């Protein structure tokens, strides 16, 4: 718990603040490197604020120092406004919106810590599946709120801890994943979290938050340190100072030992690994708070003990562990249940509601929220949206005037889709739902400017399987064509020559995927050079533009043949021949239809060309690929018109 010495920090009391009291220095992987830092000497005392800025010496430019000073002053003034009751503390907002369940520490002390200091917070997610589900969104919401209010906010992808498996809430061991499946899950979830952060920025702008210089968010992967963490150091610093008895007394451990299939040594050390993650984020980024789901309270408490155990053994310059402003805290969010106490977040079939547009379509996710009962609307609007509570009250009042319209449900569904998939998808999904269920829909749409290029929200989450023989040939242009990133082999060669496509990894790595992806430009290299970029010997990760990603897995030729699939450029499928024939048919159509002279009878050759085109498109038309003018119904109408014209011309001659 935090000490009552916080009372000494109120009012005009002064204290000297450590380097991370304002904001930590992020790594290069962060979206913002704009941070606050302090040094040894005190320049001046800001009015009524415990936050004191210290000059940075000669190592930093005057401009940067001025920005840091302004940010520190703004934070101090905000702390004063909160103390005077002129502005709510973010912790009070969490409590009001029902985002807090169990707390590791005193609620009042955590509130005071958040008022006085720009602390860092994180949420950890293990990539045990290819997508986040609706339950993950609950602990992420307070993290997003913290980011929008100026706190350092980190999402941690637990690739290393996922290999061990969290025993919380389980009686049986987690099923071991194949390495290839695990790596694909890691990449998919990485980009899904990245997409969420992009949408959070958009939501912040939409609700009037102005991005500040000190805003910092980051996405980390614990592979970064676990892949190079010496076991001996881990055991010396932590293992020798942790007693097994308290670990075995945890409810999760006792249930698995007595009711389940036993507990492995790896599962027993899971909480220590998670605590070590927290310690790493604390010493690097000043992360003092962990936010977790309802089943993570035990892990959070253990993590606090880990940080407090290791911190005295590895002192951080300028940090006083005994200061109440360096306290380590955490809390969990409530379990996602309805008004009857039943767990929600499942589809009608009993499966998870995924945040992937492939596993759960935006339309299905929208429909799920529209079907929720009225009595759950206030709670769910507070949990899943950034709508101010005053506006929520207005929405609920409007809902009461005409319940069949389900105004609250539609607004909730729209907000969730906008956060998960983006505003453009939310708008199109709402229109689609209104078209299907027009009677009780909401007519108000939220408009915004859209772009036609591939955006992160519209980018395909493509997991492409291709035969191994294609990689054996090593022709990168053919691989780009087969993966759907190029329109043809020649286009693939052009992209490679111009270095307009990127490949994940470093040349010659030929090993397991590391902590993060480093994309390098694809070049028109020799065929054998392509194999140097394989991950785990069978996977390529390709990117065109910023967000068009292809995760290509190469499987045996026999396995691919058994799938019954084909790929662009595959020999013997006739796809190239069909494309050439299509081009000729389009040219023939342009010559025979667009130039029809009503004063002359169409020739039989023109009608034959159209009939041949009709025959082709009746079997091959794809609305996602071909021009709508090539739809068989359109061609039939043109044929009918020309036949009538030919008939009329013949009658005129008689």
Automatic annotation (TrEMBL):
The subcellular localization recorded is: Mitochondrion matrix
Alphabetical UniProt keywords: Aminoacyl-tRNA synthetase, ATP-binding, Ligase, mRNA processing, Nucleotide-binding, Protein biosynthesis, Transit peptide
Signal peptide range in chain numbering = none
InterPro entries, per this entry? aa-tRNA-synth_I_CS, aa-tRNA-synth_Ic, Rossmann-like_a/b/a_fold, S4_RNA-bd_sf, Tyr-tRNA-ligase, Tyr-tRNA-ligase_bac-type, TyrRSs_C
Biological process (GO) annotations held by this record are: mRNA processing; tyrosyl-tRNA aminoacylation
Q: What class of enzyme is it?
A: ligase
- The Tyrosyl-tRNA synthetase C-terminal domain covers which part of the protein? 456-571
Origin species, per record, is Pyricularia grisea
Family statement: Belongs to the class-I aminoacyl-tRNA synthetase family.
Instruction: Write out the GO MF terms.
Output: ATP binding; RNA binding; tyrosine-tRNA ligase activity
The terms describing its cellular component in GO are: cytosol; mitochondrial matrix
Task: Spell out the protein name for this chain.
Answer: Tyrosine--tRNA ligase
Q: Which reaction does it catalyse?
A: tRNA(Tyr) + L-tyrosine + ATP = L-tyrosyl-tRNA(Tyr) + AMP + diphosphate + H(+)
E.C. number: 6.1.1.1
């Amino acid at each position: 718990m935090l000490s009552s010495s916080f009372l000494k920090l109120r009012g005009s009391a002064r204290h000297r603040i450590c380097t991370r009291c304002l904001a930590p220095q992020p790594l290069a992987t962060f979206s913002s490197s704009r941070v606050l830092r302090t040094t040894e000497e005190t320049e001046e005392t800001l009015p009524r604020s415990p936050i004191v800025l210290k000059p940075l010496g000669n190592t930093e430019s005057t401009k940067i120092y001025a920005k840091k000073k302004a940010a520190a002053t703004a934070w101090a003034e905000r702390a004063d406004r909160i103390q005077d009751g002129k502005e709510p503390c973010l912790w009070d907002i969490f409590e009001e919106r029902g985002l807090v369940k169990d707390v590791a520490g005193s609620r009042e002390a955590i509130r005071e810590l958040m008022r006085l200091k720009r602390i860092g917070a994180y949420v950890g997610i293990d990539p045990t599946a290819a997508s986040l589900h609706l339950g993950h969104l609950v602990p992420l919401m307070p993290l997003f709120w913290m980011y929008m209010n100026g706190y350092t906010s980190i999402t941690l992808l637990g690739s290393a801890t996922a290999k061990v498996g969290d025993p919380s809430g389980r009686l049986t061991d987690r099923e071991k994943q194949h390495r290839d499946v695990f790596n694909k899950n890691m990449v998919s979830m990485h980009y899904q979290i990245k997409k969420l952060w992009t949408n959070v920025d958009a939501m912040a702008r939409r609700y009037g938050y102005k991005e500040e210089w000190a805003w910092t968010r980051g996405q980390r992967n614990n592979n970064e340190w676990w892949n190079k963490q010496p076991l001996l150091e881990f055991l010396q610093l932590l293992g020798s100072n942790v007693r097994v008895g308290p670990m075995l007394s945890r409810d999760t451990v006792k249930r698995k030992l007595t009711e389940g299939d036993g507990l492995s040594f790896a599962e027993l050390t899971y909480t220590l690994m998670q605590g070590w993650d927290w310690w790493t984020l604390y010493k690097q980024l000043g992360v003092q708070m962990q936010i977790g789901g309802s089943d993570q309270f035990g892990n959070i408490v253990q993590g606090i003990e880990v940080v407090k155990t290791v911190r005295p053994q590895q002192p951080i310059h300028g940090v006083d562990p005994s200061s109440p402003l360096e306290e380590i805290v955490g809390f969990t969010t409530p379990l996602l249940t309805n008004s009857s106490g039943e767990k929600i977040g499942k589809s009608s079939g009993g499966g998870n509601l995924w945040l992937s547009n492939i596993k759960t379509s935006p339309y299905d996710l929208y429909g799920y929220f529209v079907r929720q009962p009225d009595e759950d609307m206030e709670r769910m609007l507070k949990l899943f949206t950034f709508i101010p509570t005053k506006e929520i009250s207005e929405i609920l009042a409007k809902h009461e005037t005409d319940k069949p319209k389900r105004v609250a449900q539609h607004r909730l569904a729209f907000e969730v889709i906008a956060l998960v998939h983006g505003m453009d998808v939310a708008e199109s999904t709402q229109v689609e739902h209104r078209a299907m269920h027009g009677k009780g829909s909401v007519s108000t749409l939220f408009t915004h400017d859209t772009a036609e290029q591939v955006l992160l929200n519209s980018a395909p989450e493509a997991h492409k399987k291709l035969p191994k023989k294609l990689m054996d040939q090593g022709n990168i242009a053919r691989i780009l064509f087969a993966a759907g990133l190029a329109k043809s082999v020649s286009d693939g060669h052009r992209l490679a020559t111009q270095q307009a496509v990127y490949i994940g990894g470093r040349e010659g790595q030929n090993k397991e995927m590391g902590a993060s992806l480093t994309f390098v430009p694809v070049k028109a290299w020799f065929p054998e050079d392509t194999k140097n970029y394989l991950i785990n010997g069978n996977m390529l990760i390709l990117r065109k533009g910023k967000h068009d990603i292809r995760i290509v897995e190469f499987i045996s030729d026999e396995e691919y043949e058994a799938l019954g699939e084909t790929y662009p450029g595959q020999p013997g499928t006739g796809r190239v021949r069909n494309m050439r024939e299509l081009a000729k048919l389009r040219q023939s159509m342009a010559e025979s239809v667009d130039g029809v002279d009503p004063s002359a009878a169409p020739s039989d050759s023109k009608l034959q060309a159209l009939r041949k085109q009709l025959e082709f498109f009746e079997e091959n038309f794809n609305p996602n690929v071909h021009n709508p003018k090539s739809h068989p119904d359109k061609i039939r109408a043109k044929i009918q018109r020309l036949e009538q014209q030919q008939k009329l011309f013949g009658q005129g001659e008689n």
